[in-house]
Amino acid sequence: MNKDDINIAFEILLEEIEKFFQLLSKEVEKAFDSQNFERASFIVERGKKLAMFREKIKSLQEEWQTLFEDLENVISAHYNKDSFKTVVLNNTLLIEKERKITGRLEKGLRTPAKKYKIPILESLIELGGKARIEVILNKVYEKMKKDMTKYDFELLPSGKEYRWRNTAQWARLIMVKEGLLSTNSPRGIWEITEKGREFYKRHKTLK
Q1: CA dihedral 62, 67, 69, 72 (to 10 degrees)
Q2: How far is CA 39 from the centre of its chain?
Q3: Residue 156's domain is classified under what CATH number?
Q4: pTM recorded for the entire structure
Q5: Both 91 and 124 in a single domain?
Q6: CA dist 76 to 1, 63, 71, 85, 88, Å?
Q7: What three-state secondary structure class fits 130?
Q8: Nearest to 24 by CA among 54, 55, 50
Q9: Looking at 57, 77, 101, which one is the last position of a domain?
Q10: In a domain, 108, yes or no
Q11: In Å, how far from its chain's centre is CA 161?
């Protein structure tokens, strides 16, 4: 059971919702420019519903934090340290077995998240330190496309996003946790930190 993995999934979902807010904002501007006030009002109402949905996701994320802590306390209270490790190992093996049955990609076939670190940092530096997701991902793609595997270009089971884009967003959230990217930037904006710049200087030859 990995609390951080679930939190990262929540963060990716929230960033995807932010993309819709940006699209709705542009559509509202177009509607007002064309004096189509009925359409503008319609879009604003949909934006309100999306905002309510976003708050529900945030609430679920907080609920998960509390639930995980409760589960962790329950399990640790009934198993000693070695037994707890055995339970976690068995559950992990079961999950891996289920992944194979459901056709999930085996480990090692896609480009790992750590390979995205330097391209992401380099792209941000070239963009002045911060930029929107789409702009950054486009630059990262140009830097990495020659080294990506065929599996990186496959669509995820949802059929709505390519695997490499999903991996890049997981990499970004790991980098935030490591202090390489800012935790305070607005949703939809990635921003490098001073630690990230130093990391890039030390490791840029490894890309």
Answers
A1: -150
A2: 32
A3: 1.10.10.10
A4: 0.60
A5: no
A6: 13, 20, 8, 10, 11
A7: strand
A8: 50
A9: 101
A10: no
A11: 12
